[in-house]
Amino acid sequence: MCSMEEDNTLGNKQEKWIKRYSSSHKILLVGEGDFSFSSCLANAFGYATNMVATSRDPREELLSKYTRAEENLKDLEDLGCNILHGIDAHTMSEHAFLKLKVFDRIVFNFPHSGFNTVFREHDSWLIRRHQDLVRGFLRSAKNMLAENGEVHITHKTAYPFSKWEIEELAEKEGLSLVEKEAFYRSDYPGYENKRGDGMSCDLAFPVGQSSTLKFNKASEKLIEKKKKKQGIRESVAR
Description:
The chain has one domain (6-237): 3-Layer(aba) Sandwich (Rossmann fold). It is built from six helices and ten strands, in the order ββββαβααββαβαββα. It has helices spanning 36-45, 59-65, 69-78, 124-142, 166-172, 220-237, and strands at 6-10, 13-18, 21-22, 27-30, 51-54, 82-84, 103-109, 145-156, 175-182, 210-217. The strands form two sheets. A seven-stranded mixed beta sheet has the order 6-5-4-7-8-10-9, with helices on both faces. Strands 1-2-3 form a three-stranded antiparallel beta sheet, with helices on one face. A hairpin with a 2-residue loop joins β1 and β2 (13-18). α1 packs parallel to α3. 34% of the residues are buried.
């Protein structure tokens, strides 16, 4: 079970925190592997009625890939979590269950478009494929954010992963960087990041130098300012 950083009593309701996540947040988790991250949050809060946890894989495939998936899913179900399988990060805002909901935190840990036997992580083709995944996720997530809500992407920051340029992708989707915080897996006991693909899908990969990038909706004033700045740059270039 995860430990909480702090407890605050608000009226008769106790708010529980684990790092950057609160039991008072409505949280959407995207692209879960064995659901160990969702399970960690749920156990920290003591319940999961404020959470929706999703996977790209159908449930049957998920159970065949990850040894702890069944245990984690049962844990989440017992704590009241809404669980959805077969959810595409690009179209999730159109899903029947999700399209009328808004969230305070939308979380995608270590997005990855899949391993390739021909291309390596530094190859431009694979980088563009990863960028397409992130771009589509950001576009869909933006439509599901509550006022003052945040989109969180945890990502490796060393080369070649830095070439994904996630901050620039977010800016083009009308999202502003709020904070870039170093990520340590040990802050989330029980969380096991998974490769998720191929024969080694159930194995963890080295997290190395990673950060959680936090974005919110850019204000209209900020968007207009950036457009003007870009216009000046283009004029100078001509």
